[in-house]
Amino acid sequence: MKKLNGVKSEILKTARLILKTNPNSLSIRKIATECNIGTGTVYNYYKNKDEIIIDLMSDYWTEFMDKIREHDFVGDAKDKFRDLFDIFSVYGKQFRFELLNGTDKEVIYEAREFNKKSFYFFVEFIQSMFPSLSVEDAMFIGFNMFAVLTTPGYEFKLLERVVLEKLL
Questions:
Q1: Which residue has the higher pLDDT, 136 or 104?
Q2: How many other C-beta atoms can be found within 10 angstroms of the C-beta atom of residue 38?
Q3: Would you say the pTM of this structure is higher than 0.70?
């Protein structure tokens, strides 16, 4: 039997793998089977699979924000934005593929508090990175970068062009 303190992380890791391979097959039973634990053990941590997805979203955003905080942005505004944009592009594609693919809109809506915190983090980060931007421009960029992460089909290159125009 796995240690109790590692069970929750094992559940999340397994759910993430299932979502990568076949999002429609995610279920409490499948997670339990893959983790070699009983379904009751999964229910000790989560009421349903939606709660697991919300926890995965929270972990994802935390990982993403840590990555941005840790990155060493150098160069002029254009170089800094391109670095930031590259990180957003990679994480946005990963997020949409792993978590939004097949996820009910209600579940995404339930994660709105964390999404709201993430948005404000983006705006504050952009303001600190580009102090010459107005608050309105920082919010515009933050909103659109958040959209890059969460909206399937959002045009990365279009956003890059618009933002670079604002920065230059």
A1: 136
A2: 11
A3: yes
